[in-house]
Amino acid sequence: MLSKSHNRKGFQSGQDEVDAWLKKTAFQNQKKHLSSTKALLDSESSIVGHYTLATCQVDFSDLPVEIAKSLPSRQLPVAVLAWLGIDKSFQGRGIGKRLLATALKDCYDAAQTFAFIAVILDCVDAPSKAFYQQFDFAELPGYPMRLYLPFKLLERLALG
């Protein structure tokens, strides 16, 4: 978990939104129980990467027809991968893939207690979108930068 002692000011991913979130908002939201941020630290306790998870609801009508047809016509629970960032000095080493795998495992583990139908995320740019799509995240209809991973696929990934 992110703590007050973690040096958030030194983190630079190259994405202003991601950096600003970690530096200004992540810890406060965690204290308010709005989200949970985990940080990967190097040997000097600098933040190498981080991800933030939260929960939310989506309207069934925002989902693809093949998913929505078997669900109730109401707001439905989802897990949210709110933020994921890797410091520029550590990019290109596969750390993003490992953090994503850890975040999805955390989502799967949480689903054993709190049910949800998918993991969703909002991409900050086209390269981020391409990164997530290589792991079978798909676009939500009408929201080109919002991606989802159905729970059944998350379960298959988690159980290998």
Defining key terms:
alpha+beta, globular, single chain, 160 residues
Explain the overall architecture.
The structure is a single chain. The chain is α+β, with helices and mostly antiparallel strands. Helix content is 34%, strand content 29%. It has a six-stranded mixed sheet, with helices on both faces. Helix 3 links the parallel strand 3 (75-86) and strand 4. The radius of gyration is 16 Å and the shape is globular.
- Describe the biggest sheet? 6 strands, mixed
DSSP summary: helix tally = 5
- Oligomerization category of the chains in this entry: single chain
The largest sheet has its strands arranged as: 1-2-3-4-6-5
Q: Could you give the distance between the termini? A: 26 Å
Backbone shape: globular
User: Can you give the mean pLDDT?
Assistant: 95
**Structural class given helices, strands, pairing?**
alpha+beta
Rg: 16 Å
- Helix content bin: 25-40%
Contiguous runs where pLDDT drops below 50 for at least 5 residues: none
Strand content: 25-35%
Q: What sequence of helices (H) and strands (E) makes up the elements?
A: HEEHEHEHEEH
Number of strands: 6
